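So, can you check this one?
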Amino acid sequence: MIQLPAPTTDSGVAVEKVMLERRSHRAFAPEPLDLAEVGQLLWAAQGVTDATGKRTAPSAGAVGPLEVFVVTSDGVSHYLPNEHALEPKAGGDRRSALASASADQLQVAEAPMVLVFTGILSRTAWKFGGDRAWRYVNLEAGHAAQNVLLMATAMGLAGVPVGAFDDNAVMDLLGLPADHRPLYVLPIGRPV
């Protein structure tokens, strides 16, 4: 397990300024993000914000169906929100293969970090039923991704949401369990 530095909770940047400046970027400098940057972005996505386990992104019924995987030149890791840590899952640079699985979008291969959001339907379906659960899980993924994009902007970073990907190829590439469904691929880096 890789412990991440504690997140900053006061950037001094106005949310209105961040919303004004947020743009999708598809070209990134190759330099890797440091652990503090990675940790801050993951906290924005699914960080725990209080002693009851509430998260930074809204969750229908607070059931937390999202999981976040980090893909870098070092390999694939899984974010553990309760520990604010990374759990290494696989070694080796899989960004090019992830780009191939994402309709050959070059920004996925070139970004120093790619977040992959997955949803576990059963965590929401037991409470709301299957039809409504998928709506809630997809909405939650959008909330979490927007949190990351706004945080990235506040940090001088940028990203672009990617929804065009082959679900099964992404699942195989990341070694995801059968109950995980990829929802978002989010390349992040320093814009050029």
